[in-house]
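Input.
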Amino acid sequence: MAKVRPIVVNQDMVVLGGNMRLKGMKEAGWKDVPIEIVDWSEDKQREFIIKDNVGFGEWEWESIANEWDAEDLEGWGLDVWQAPVEVDYSLLDDEDDLDNQLDEMTNGVKKAIQIEFEPDHYLEAYELVKFWRDQDAYVGKMILDFLKAEKNRL
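Output.
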């Protein structure tokens, strides 16, 4: 493992990746440890430290919270705990008023119904709906009128 994944250190010989492996090697009495010296920017080193430990690292959460940008950490794969957002639910106290507000918000909003087609009919249906929409026709009303007429014929 040591040859395949050497200890990664910066130019100042500060370990960036492999701290636990290095500790194990020392405890096992190793005298020579394979290392890879990198010449990375400070930002690249910080990113590497997080990415190298995402799957199994132990975190000092206070340090993480105070010294790291949460958006960067999440981008590097570390799930960052954030305090829950406080929500003011007092608006929900008057249920009738809420119902009226919801009615006003949805008044005039179009709704959709999904219609299933056999594979052989899908393309034809798609093209017809597109044609009528391009004509600024209200396709929903056209379908509704047709379905009513068919129901009345029964």
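The chain has a mean pLDDT of 84.
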